[in-house]
Structures are given as structure tokens and as C-alpha cells.
Amino acid sequence: MPKILAVGEIGGGQLKKASREVTSVGKKLAGSVDTVLIGSGAAGCAAEVAKHGAGVVYAGEAAEYSGEAYAKAIAALVKDKGYEIVLVPHSWTGRDISSRIATHLGSAVISDATEISLDGDKVKIKKPVYSGKAYVELKCKATPQVVTIRPNSQPIAEEAGAGSVENITVDLSGLKAKQVSYSAQATNRVSVTEADIVVSGGRGIKGPENFGPMIEEMADLMGAGVGATRAVVDAGWVDHTLQIGQTGQTVSPNLYIAVGISGAIQHMAGMGSSKYIVAINKDADAPIFKVSTFGVVDDLFNVVPVMKEELKTHYGK
Ligand SMILES: Cc1cc2nc3c(=O)[nH]c(=O)nc-3n(C[C@H](O)[C@H](O)[C@H](O)COP(=O)(O)OP(=O)(O)OC[C@H]3O[C@@H](n4cnc5c(N)ncnc54)[C@H](O)[C@@H]3O)c2cc1C
User: Fold this and answer.
1) With CB atoms 3.0 to 4.6 Å apart as the test, which of 10, 85, 99, 267 could cross-link to 39 if both were Cys?
2) CA of 136 to the centre of ligand 1 (A)
3) Could you tell me if the CB of 49 is within 6 A of ligand 1?
4) Considering only CA atoms, which residue is closest to atom 31 of ligand 1?
């Protein structure tokens, strides 16, 4: 079996869900996997990631994020230990470091896998292209193979590994580009890319004053993430960080609730791989119904209040 290294992510000293996913994938593919975690509090997350199969956890303390430094440290580890496959989350930082890792290794990246398997020692992936209108299968011919995996697209395994910690050095000196500042949004909501449920609002909500009552309140009842279409973002109703689609975030939740969203191809590019899609739209011919598991053809201002009452009863709130 090929030797696999999963590249995890931490934030605020906590293990991110993507770390559990890439580690689980490695364990499933090869029977054993090691995981590298870089950031503040990396060693403290070793036990958590070991629950999903990590044999060795390489922990690199770094006071700030640097794609340049992280990739250099990970590539050195891959060379030193002889890893043949490197699994990276297809997140903002994963996209930043994966190509850098491959460059250091003189190799190649295959990106955004929603399905992944082994064909001998080579990784084979399937991923949506052309805004979800087609799928391609890719195989990496170079070694080591660097593969990015779409967040939330893979099951998380509860199969423990040893989780023995080895420290690695991340050199933040002499960088060519440096992070000047980092400001996280003050929100208690789960990140939209990690959320199991996403409630998303489109132009059908009519105005920014309705985003809270129609979208956010429903999301909060379920502990869901919140998204929006570009139409809503361009109108200035919500922050662009909420945009889902071709030019926004890509999400793969278990449940995606599209409220007042037409289902333009550019929007579906970012949510089409959701497991269940529920659409509420008063136009029975809206394209979103072609991809939805359940559809409600009605005025959202009638439907959402009823759903909220049902959810309050269901969740005892
Ligand atoms: C290069 C490019 C990139 C793009 N990238 C993205 C992207 O990343 N993400 C994205 O979302 N879009 C993107 N777009 C824009 C995309 O083409 C659509 O314009 C956009 O997704 C439409 O958003 P919407 O569904 O909110 O609005 P609309 O298309 O206007 O749909 C609103 C829907 O609400 C329904 N509705 C209205 N009132 C009610 C009501 N009371 N009750 C129930 N339903 C109601 C209507 O029937 C309609 O279907 C991109 C476009 C281009 C050209």
C-alpha cells in the first residue's frame, strides 16, 4: 500500500473538520495514514486527529499562517519520510499550499476530488467540472501525488490510530510574502464549508431586512451555516464571504436549503454536490427544482415561518 500523509488544518487551536476528513480518507485508502498539523496549538490536536486513524501526528508550531513556509515544511517531511500520496483539504489554505507542495516535490496536483480511490499505487479521483454539468476522472501519474479533497464530501471514520506526536520545524524567517493581518468575523455560526446543513438565501427574499428572519433564524434553529447567491451579495444585502457558487464558496453539506434561489448554473457549481437539496421557490419552472430532492412551490414568506415553527418544536426551542 502507498504511504499516505494527510495535511490537516487547525484554527484557534482547534482541529478543523477537514482534518478529520482527509485523515479518514487516507486510513480508508491504505489502512494506515499519518497526519501533519501546522499552526498554533498543533500538538494539542494530536489526540483528536488520532481518533480518525492518524498513526503519527507531525506537529509544527507556527504563530502565523504562511503558505510558503507551511508548504516548505510539508514537502521536506514528504521527502524525508518517503510519502507517496499527500491528501490536502480543498479549502482556501489547502488550495494555497497544495500547488506549492507539488512544486517543491517536482510533482503535480489533482484537485477538488469528490470521489477518491486507489488504482494500484495511483490515486484516481472523480470531480465535477463545467459548473457541475459533467464529471471527469483523473489519475496522477507523478510521484508523490498531491490530491485536494472537497470539504464535506467524504465520510469521517471513527477508527483510531496511535497518534504518536513528532514535532517538526516551520521556519517563518526570510519569507518572500508575509501575512500582514488576519481578522476573523465575529460569529458563533459554523463555517459554511464545514456545516452539515446550509440555509441559503436568494433574490426571492426581496431585501436585506428579510435575510435575518427568513434565512439566519431558520439556520440558527438547526445550528446550520448561512449562504447566499451572488445576486444577494452584489445587491449589498450580505457580505461577500457568504456567496456560494462558481465565484464564491463551494459547499457539500448533507442538507442544502435554497430559499428564493432560481438555481443558476453558477450557483449550482458551488452547491450541486450537496447530498439533499430542498428548494423553496414560487416558480415551479425554476431550475433549482431539477436538482432538488424536495421542492416546495410556494411563496417563501408563507413557507419559512411555518418551517421555523416546526423546527422550534422539533429542536425544543
Ligand atoms: C461569471 C459569473 C459568475 C457567477 N458566479 C456566481 C456565484 O458564484 N454564485 C451565484 O449564486 N451566482 C453567480 N452568478 C450569478 C448567477 O448567474 C445568477 O444571476 C444568480 O445566482 C441568481 O441569484 P438568485 O437565484 O438569488 O436570483 P434570481 O435568479 O433572480 O432568482 C430569484 C428566485 O426567487 C424566486 N422568488 C421570488 N420571489 C419569491 C417568493 N416570494 N417566494 C419564493 N420564491 C421567490 C424567483 O422565482 C426566482 O427563481 C455568476 C454569474 C456569472 C456571469
Assistant:
1) 10
2) 26
3) no
4) 262
